[in-house]
Amino acid sequence: MNQVYLGLGSNMGDREQYLLQAIGLLEESKNIKIKNVSSIYETAPIGYLDQGAFLNMAVEIETPLAPLPLLEQTSRIENTLNRKREIHWGPRTIDVDLLLFNQEIIHEEKLTVPHPRMAERAFVLVPLMEIAPELYLPGKGKIKELLSCCPGKEGVLLKNAFPVIK
Ligand code: X6L
Ligand code: MG
Ligand code: MG
Questions:
Q1: 126 found inside a domain
Q2: Is residue 166 part of a domain?
Q3: Model pTM greater than 0.85?
């Protein structure tokens, strides 16, 4: 079994509903078992600033799937929830990112793990801190150490401490 951490984000339409639907579709996937979910956080947009605030959360799953088949499954879930790719780094109904796959470092054409930039992104680290503070990011350090020197934490606000599925 592989232990995987996913980052979920939405900043279009009913953002919370998209996050909860994505979790529902993950749970329905034959080869994916949800182990833990973080609270939902409202976060200021990073990268492309002229867009609405995001809701972000982190999810721990267990799966026998290898990284690329798992990526295909998460892409299918994005497509099911009407993800369109218009503006690079722009608004999306749902984003499901593969943050960590065991402690592996993966560099493939379609997939880089750990997710690039996650070590410096408060919208990734704050939700992860809740469910895996002792987790080690290969080559970077523990989540709680990375968070202590991560800029932009003030742009991450707790929105919903107990998602209905928890
Ligand atoms: C310089 C260069 C500064 C690149 C920042 C950071 C670009 C993050 C893209 C960057 C840079 C990203 C989310 C988001 C995006 C999200 C929030 C990205 C990809 N996704 N902002 N911006 N939450 N709050 O999920 O992460 S676009
Ligand atoms: Mg992303
Ligand atoms: Mg993505």
A1: yes
A2: no
A3: yes
